[in-house]
Amino acid sequence: MADSSTQAQQTAQVLQEELEKNAKRFQAVVDGFVVDASDPAIGSTPKDVVWKRGKSQLFRYHPQTAKTHPVPYLIVPWLGISRTHVLDLLPGNSYIESLLKQGYDVYLLDWGEIAEEDKNLGFEDAVFKILPRIIDRALEISQAQELTLNGICVGGTIAAAYLALEPHAPVRNFVAMVAPIDFDEGGMFKSWLDERYFPVDMIVDRFGGIPASLMAAGFKMLRPTGDIQAKSSLWLNLERPGAITSFKAMNRWASNYIAMPGRFFSQLTKDLYFNNRMIKGQFMLGGRKVDLSQISCPLLVIAARQDFIVPPLAAKGLMDAVSSEDKEYVELPGGHISVFSGRQAHRTLWPKIDEWVSARAE
């Protein structure tokens, strides 16, 4: 009888505590979404536009330390899909800010907002026209001889193609972050972009590329419960300081898709997802073969353990394809985006980047 009474008291206490937690959560929701319905500013780290070609721009971020590393740090992100604000989400939760605080001279390529008029933009434009110019511009401004090239997602695929075709480029280090290279290991995207069923030519002919609305629908189809999971996670973490601000910032970024140019999408789909031509040494750009074995600079390959967009094996394929003697593969916890912008990134990815690049600064 005493045991039953004790158990009932414990149950009542747990229920009371949960009710109190939920009351606080409801109040936090009211305060964060009703009383203050505004979104936080994202991508707010101070920067200057130091180069421009068409819609593409090169940003240089204002230094945050008295002394900077002698080797500039150039980030080449994904082309289309979404904006680059997630790399500089909020103060204290910003990959770019973390690099600046470690003393790096940081540059970021911004491809601009792609539209139908950009349908002819392809790998050739990125590799032969844009990357060489932004590298030269960054080196000129920083008065340096070489830089670290950090390609993220398909920005890493583009950077790998550039380095394969220009093995003597002034690039000291190459950091390939969640970058698809072995497209046979492309996971759900590989299944979705099945040559037998996916009408790439029809889509490109009709829209001139992948419009933002279709891009949004495609990513939601890949993870249809993503919005529910995000809101559920918010509810469980409402007591954490800054939880609502972080949710609003990420939700604002994740809801703003950008189109992908038709030619680039066609090459990405047909040459890479359909036929995996880059890792096979069969990918041709401007009449030249992209031979990844020509890459010999120090290489850091970063994969995310829970990445369903670029599974670890898709990123790891670069390791065996290059001839670099100094190369390292790191698989970190997180998904495709959270690996560099999640709460754990300041303990995992950011210190690893600084440790690896700093060791190769001289």
> If strands are numbered along the chain, what order do they take across the biggest sheet?
1-2-7-3-8-9-15-16
Provide a count of the helices.
14
The poorly predicted ranges are none
Which fold name fills CATH's third level, the topology?
A: Rossmann fold
Structural class: alpha/beta
Major β-sheet annotation? 8 strands, mixed
**Helix content range:** 40-55%
Q: What proportion strand? A: 15-25%
- The fourth-level CATH homologous superfamily is Alpha/Beta hydrolase fold, catalytic domain
What is the gyration radius calculated from CA atoms?
A: 22 Å
| Tally of strands | 16
Shape label: globular
Task: Describe this structure in a few short sentences.
The chain has helices spanning 2-35, 95-101, 123-142, 154-165, 187-192, 200-207, 212-222, 226-236, 243-254, 262-274, 277-280, 312-321, 338-341, 349-358, and strands at residues 47-53, 56-61, 73-76, 81-82, 88-90, 93-94, 106-110, 147-152, 171-177, 209-210, 257-258, 260-261, 284-285, 288-289, 299-304, 327-332.
